[in-house]
Amino acid sequence: MRFISNFLLIVNLSIVSVGAIGTGFLSLPASASEIALGQNPSMGRSNWANPALGETHSSPSYVDVSYGTWLSGVRSFTAHIGSSIGKYKTGYRMRHVSLNDLEYRTARPTDEPLASFGASGSAVDFYINGSRDNIKAGAALRWVYMDMHTESSHGLSLDLGGLYSIEDNIQIGASILNLGSMSKFKIDSPTLPLRALAGVSVKLFSESNPILIGVHTEYNSHVSGLIAGLSAKMQLPSLALQAGFRSSKNVVSFSGGVGFSIGMYRLNYGLLYGTHQLGIPHMIDLSIRLP
Hints:
Layout: E1 2-4, H1 16-22, H2 32-37, E2 61-69, E3 75-85, E4 88-104, E5 115-132, E6 135-148, E7 151-166, E8 170-182, E9 195-204, E10 211-220, E11 227-235, E12 239-247, E13 252-262, E14 265-274, E15 282-290
Parallel strand pairs: 1-4
Antiparallel strand pairs: 2-3, 2-15, 3-4, 4-5, 5-6, 6-7, 7-8, 8-9, 9-10, 10-11, 11-12, 12-13, 13-14, 14-15
Protein backbone atom coordinates (compact mmCIF):
# COMPACT_ATOMS: atom_id res chain seq x y z
CA MET A 1 0.00 0.00 0.00
CA ARG A 2 1.10 3.54 -0.59
CA PHE A 3 0.56 6.44 1.75
CA ILE A 4 -0.72 9.54 0.02
CA SER A 5 0.11 12.56 2.13
CA ASN A 6 -1.57 15.94 2.12
CA PHE A 7 0.53 16.74 -0.98
CA LEU A 8 -2.05 14.71 -2.89
CA LEU A 9 -5.02 14.59 -0.53
CA ILE A 10 -5.78 17.15 2.13
CA VAL A 11 -7.51 15.80 5.23
CA ASN A 12 -11.03 16.46 3.97
CA LEU A 13 -10.31 14.84 0.59
CA SER A 14 -10.57 18.07 -1.33
CA ILE A 15 -9.88 17.09 -4.93
CA VAL A 16 -8.76 20.53 -6.05
CA SER A 17 -5.07 19.69 -5.82
CA VAL A 18 -5.64 16.17 -7.11
CA GLY A 19 -7.17 17.56 -10.28
CA ALA A 20 -4.00 19.43 -11.14
CA ILE A 21 -1.86 16.36 -10.43
CA GLY A 22 -4.22 13.84 -12.06
CA THR A 23 -4.28 15.47 -15.50
CA GLY A 24 -0.49 15.48 -15.40
CA PHE A 25 -0.58 12.01 -16.97
CA LEU A 26 -0.98 13.87 -20.28
CA SER A 27 2.61 15.10 -19.87
CA LEU A 28 4.14 11.64 -19.33
CA PRO A 29 6.11 9.97 -22.14
CA ALA A 30 3.77 7.77 -24.17
CA SER A 31 6.35 5.49 -25.79
CA ALA A 32 9.79 3.98 -25.28
CA SER A 33 11.31 6.42 -27.78
CA GLU A 34 9.86 9.38 -25.85
CA ILE A 35 11.44 8.09 -22.64
CA ALA A 36 14.80 7.55 -24.36
CA LEU A 37 14.92 10.72 -26.50
CA GLY A 38 12.68 13.08 -24.59
CA GLN A 39 9.63 14.82 -26.02
CA ASN A 40 11.31 16.76 -28.82
CA PRO A 41 8.70 18.14 -31.28
CA SER A 42 11.22 17.95 -34.16
CA MET A 43 12.53 14.43 -33.61
CA GLY A 44 11.29 10.87 -33.59
CA ARG A 45 8.41 9.06 -35.24
CA SER A 46 6.01 9.39 -32.29
CA ASN A 47 3.53 12.26 -32.69
CA TRP A 48 2.43 12.56 -29.06
CA ALA A 49 4.66 15.63 -28.60
CA ASN A 50 3.82 17.10 -32.00
CA PRO A 51 0.84 15.99 -34.12
CA ALA A 52 2.78 17.04 -37.25
CA LEU A 53 5.28 14.22 -36.68
CA GLY A 54 4.60 10.67 -37.80
CA GLU A 55 5.77 7.66 -39.73
CA THR A 56 7.79 8.24 -42.88
CA HIS A 57 7.73 4.70 -44.29
CA SER A 58 5.61 3.62 -47.26
CA SER A 59 3.37 1.23 -45.30
CA PRO A 60 -0.24 2.45 -45.57
CA SER A 61 -1.23 1.22 -42.09
CA TYR A 62 0.51 0.45 -38.81
CA VAL A 63 -0.20 -0.51 -35.19
CA ASP A 64 1.86 0.56 -32.17
CA VAL A 65 1.42 -0.79 -28.64
CA SER A 66 3.41 0.42 -25.60
CA TYR A 67 3.50 -0.67 -21.97
CA GLY A 68 5.63 0.45 -19.06
CA THR A 69 5.91 1.84 -15.55
CA TRP A 70 6.52 5.42 -14.42
CA LEU A 71 7.50 6.89 -11.06
CA SER A 72 6.10 5.42 -7.82
CA GLY A 73 4.59 2.40 -9.59
CA VAL A 74 2.40 4.27 -12.08
CA ARG A 75 1.53 1.93 -14.97
CA SER A 76 1.04 3.15 -18.52
CA PHE A 77 -0.48 1.57 -21.62
CA THR A 78 -0.84 3.18 -25.05
CA ALA A 79 -2.14 1.98 -28.41
CA HIS A 80 -1.94 3.71 -31.78
CA ILE A 81 -3.57 2.76 -35.08
CA GLY A 82 -2.53 4.87 -38.05
CA SER A 83 -2.99 4.92 -41.81
CA SER A 84 -2.18 6.98 -44.88
CA ILE A 85 -4.94 8.55 -46.95
CA GLY A 86 -3.40 10.19 -49.98
CA LYS A 87 -0.92 12.77 -48.76
CA TYR A 88 -2.47 12.84 -45.27
CA LYS A 89 -1.78 10.62 -42.28
CA THR A 90 -4.56 9.94 -39.80
CA GLY A 91 -5.07 7.71 -36.84
CA TYR A 92 -6.53 6.99 -33.43
CA ARG A 93 -4.55 6.88 -30.21
CA MET A 94 -5.46 5.67 -26.75
CA ARG A 95 -3.58 5.85 -23.47
CA HIS A 96 -4.40 4.68 -19.96
CA VAL A 97 -2.38 5.46 -16.82
CA SER A 98 -3.21 3.96 -13.43
CA LEU A 99 -1.95 3.82 -9.85
CA ASN A 100 -3.41 1.25 -7.44
CA ASP A 101 -3.25 0.55 -3.69
CA LEU A 102 -3.52 4.16 -2.63
CA GLU A 103 -4.36 4.81 1.03
CA TYR A 104 -6.28 7.69 2.54
CA ARG A 105 -5.09 8.63 6.04
CA THR A 106 -5.50 11.64 8.28
CA ALA A 107 -2.67 13.35 10.16
CA ARG A 108 -3.28 11.08 13.17
CA PRO A 109 -1.32 7.78 12.87
CA THR A 110 -3.46 4.63 12.61
CA ASP A 111 -2.73 0.96 11.93
CA GLU A 112 -5.23 0.78 9.09
CA PRO A 113 -6.05 3.40 6.43
CA LEU A 114 -9.47 5.02 6.35
CA ALA A 115 -9.85 3.86 2.75
CA SER A 116 -7.94 2.15 -0.05
CA PHE A 117 -8.52 3.10 -3.67
CA GLY A 118 -6.98 3.59 -7.08
CA ALA A 119 -6.59 6.48 -9.49
CA SER A 120 -6.47 6.48 -13.28
CA GLY A 121 -6.47 8.69 -16.33
CA SER A 122 -7.51 7.81 -19.88
CA ALA A 123 -7.41 9.66 -23.19
CA VAL A 124 -8.61 8.82 -26.70
CA ASP A 125 -7.90 11.05 -29.67
CA PHE A 126 -8.04 11.39 -33.42
CA TYR A 127 -5.22 13.12 -35.30
CA ILE A 128 -4.48 14.20 -38.84
CA ASN A 129 -1.36 15.66 -40.41
CA GLY A 130 -0.22 16.58 -43.89
CA SER A 131 2.66 18.21 -45.72
CA ARG A 132 3.25 20.71 -48.48
CA ASP A 133 6.75 21.25 -49.80
CA ASN A 134 8.98 21.36 -46.69
CA ILE A 135 6.24 22.24 -44.19
CA LYS A 136 4.14 19.78 -42.18
CA ALA A 137 1.18 20.60 -39.95
CA GLY A 138 -1.01 18.48 -37.72
CA ALA A 139 -3.80 18.56 -35.16
CA ALA A 140 -5.28 16.13 -32.63
CA LEU A 141 -8.66 16.27 -30.86
CA ARG A 142 -8.72 14.39 -27.55
CA TRP A 143 -11.31 13.16 -25.04
CA VAL A 144 -9.90 12.95 -21.50
CA TYR A 145 -11.29 11.07 -18.49
CA MET A 146 -9.84 10.71 -14.98
CA ASP A 147 -11.09 9.29 -11.70
CA MET A 148 -9.87 9.03 -8.12
CA HIS A 149 -11.72 7.55 -5.16
CA THR A 150 -15.37 8.59 -5.67
CA GLU A 151 -14.63 11.54 -7.96
CA SER A 152 -14.35 11.71 -11.76
CA SER A 153 -13.92 14.35 -14.44
CA HIS A 154 -13.90 14.47 -18.23
CA GLY A 155 -13.12 17.01 -20.92
CA LEU A 156 -11.86 17.80 -24.42
CA SER A 157 -8.48 19.11 -25.53
CA LEU A 158 -6.76 20.11 -28.76
CA ASP A 159 -3.14 19.70 -29.90
CA LEU A 160 -1.59 21.77 -32.70
CA GLY A 161 1.86 21.36 -34.23
CA GLY A 162 4.12 22.23 -37.13
CA LEU A 163 7.40 21.02 -38.63
CA TYR A 164 9.75 22.81 -41.02
CA SER A 165 12.52 20.94 -42.88
CA ILE A 166 15.67 22.47 -44.32
CA GLU A 167 17.25 20.33 -47.08
CA ASP A 168 16.30 17.09 -45.28
CA ASN A 169 19.10 17.60 -42.73
CA ILE A 170 17.55 20.06 -40.27
CA GLN A 171 14.08 19.97 -38.79
CA ILE A 172 12.48 22.67 -36.65
CA GLY A 173 9.34 21.74 -34.76
CA ALA A 174 6.90 23.45 -32.43
CA SER A 175 3.63 22.44 -30.79
CA ILE A 176 0.99 23.58 -28.33
CA LEU A 177 -0.67 20.76 -26.40
CA ASN A 178 -3.72 20.32 -24.16
CA LEU A 179 -5.78 23.35 -25.14
CA GLY A 180 -9.10 22.68 -23.42
CA SER A 181 -10.90 22.20 -20.13
CA MET A 182 -12.26 19.54 -17.77
CA SER A 183 -15.61 19.13 -16.03
CA LYS A 184 -15.93 19.90 -12.33
CA PHE A 185 -15.27 17.67 -9.37
CA LYS A 186 -17.47 18.34 -6.35
CA ILE A 187 -15.36 21.36 -5.40
CA ASP A 188 -13.48 22.60 -8.43
CA SER A 189 -12.38 21.72 -11.96
CA PRO A 190 -8.99 20.07 -12.63
CA THR A 191 -6.73 21.98 -14.99
CA LEU A 192 -5.08 20.54 -18.07
CA PRO A 193 -1.27 20.88 -18.31
CA LEU A 194 -0.90 23.48 -21.04
CA ARG A 195 2.36 22.74 -22.85
CA ALA A 196 4.38 24.68 -25.43
CA LEU A 197 7.31 22.83 -27.01
CA ALA A 198 10.01 23.87 -29.46
CA GLY A 199 12.92 21.84 -30.80
CA VAL A 200 15.57 21.48 -33.48
CA SER A 201 17.16 18.29 -34.80
CA VAL A 202 20.10 17.86 -37.17
CA LYS A 203 20.97 14.79 -39.25
CA LEU A 204 24.68 14.04 -39.50
CA PHE A 205 26.66 11.72 -41.78
CA SER A 206 25.21 9.29 -44.33
CA GLU A 207 21.64 8.47 -45.17
CA SER A 208 22.19 4.75 -44.52
CA ASN A 209 23.53 5.14 -40.97
CA PRO A 210 22.55 8.66 -39.86
CA ILE A 211 23.08 10.20 -36.45
CA LEU A 212 20.43 12.61 -35.23
CA ILE A 213 21.20 15.29 -32.63
CA GLY A 214 18.35 17.29 -31.12
CA VAL A 215 17.71 20.00 -28.55
CA HIS A 216 14.35 21.10 -27.20
CA THR A 217 12.69 23.20 -24.54
CA GLU A 218 9.25 23.06 -22.97
CA TYR A 219 6.92 25.25 -20.97
CA ASN A 220 4.44 23.29 -18.84
CA SER A 221 1.84 25.10 -16.74
CA HIS A 222 2.12 22.39 -14.07
CA VAL A 223 5.91 22.67 -13.77
CA SER A 224 7.96 25.47 -12.24
CA GLY A 225 10.40 26.89 -14.81
CA LEU A 226 11.34 25.60 -18.25
CA ILE A 227 12.35 22.04 -19.17
CA ALA A 228 15.38 21.66 -21.47
CA GLY A 229 16.58 18.53 -23.22
CA LEU A 230 19.34 17.11 -25.41
CA SER A 231 18.96 13.86 -27.38
CA ALA A 232 20.89 11.70 -29.83
CA LYS A 233 20.00 8.72 -32.03
CA MET A 234 22.18 6.48 -34.17
CA GLN A 235 20.29 4.54 -36.84
CA LEU A 236 21.84 1.30 -38.15
CA PRO A 237 20.20 -1.01 -40.73
CA SER A 238 18.17 -2.98 -38.14
CA LEU A 239 19.27 -1.36 -34.87
CA ALA A 240 18.71 2.07 -33.30
CA LEU A 241 20.62 3.43 -30.28
CA GLN A 242 19.11 6.35 -28.35
CA ALA A 243 20.20 8.59 -25.48
CA GLY A 244 18.87 11.72 -23.81
CA PHE A 245 19.41 14.30 -21.09
CA ARG A 246 16.75 16.51 -19.49
CA SER A 247 16.94 19.26 -16.92
CA SER A 248 14.32 21.29 -15.05
CA LYS A 249 14.36 23.47 -11.97
CA ASN A 250 14.24 20.53 -9.54
CA VAL A 251 15.16 17.38 -11.50
CA VAL A 252 17.97 16.24 -13.80
CA SER A 253 17.54 12.97 -15.69
CA PHE A 254 19.45 10.73 -18.10
CA SER A 255 17.84 8.24 -20.46
CA GLY A 256 18.68 5.61 -23.01
CA GLY A 257 17.05 3.14 -25.33
CA VAL A 258 17.51 0.56 -28.05
CA GLY A 259 15.34 -0.49 -30.98
CA PHE A 260 15.32 -3.55 -33.25
CA SER A 261 13.66 -3.96 -36.65
CA ILE A 262 12.84 -7.34 -38.16
CA GLY A 263 10.72 -7.26 -41.28
CA MET A 264 7.33 -5.74 -40.47
CA TYR A 265 8.06 -5.71 -36.72
CA ARG A 266 9.88 -3.16 -34.62
CA LEU A 267 10.69 -3.46 -30.90
CA ASN A 268 11.87 -0.51 -28.77
CA TYR A 269 12.91 -0.26 -25.13
CA GLY A 270 13.63 2.90 -23.15
CA LEU A 271 14.47 3.75 -19.54
CA LEU A 272 15.16 6.88 -17.53
CA TYR A 273 17.19 7.64 -14.41
CA GLY A 274 16.66 10.90 -12.52
CA THR A 275 17.71 12.70 -9.37
CA HIS A 276 14.14 12.40 -8.01
CA GLN A 277 15.05 8.89 -6.71
CA LEU A 278 11.45 7.68 -7.11
CA GLY A 279 12.31 4.69 -9.26
CA ILE A 280 13.50 4.03 -12.80
CA PRO A 281 10.70 4.43 -15.38
CA HIS A 282 10.90 2.14 -18.38
CA MET A 283 8.71 1.25 -21.35
CA ILE A 284 8.64 -1.23 -24.21
CA ASP A 285 7.02 -0.73 -27.64
CA LEU A 286 5.91 -3.18 -30.30
CA SER A 287 5.21 -1.72 -33.74
CA ILE A 288 3.69 -3.67 -36.64
CA ARG A 289 3.72 -2.37 -40.23
CA LEU A 290 0.66 -3.73 -42.00
CA PRO A 291 0.83 -4.69 -45.70
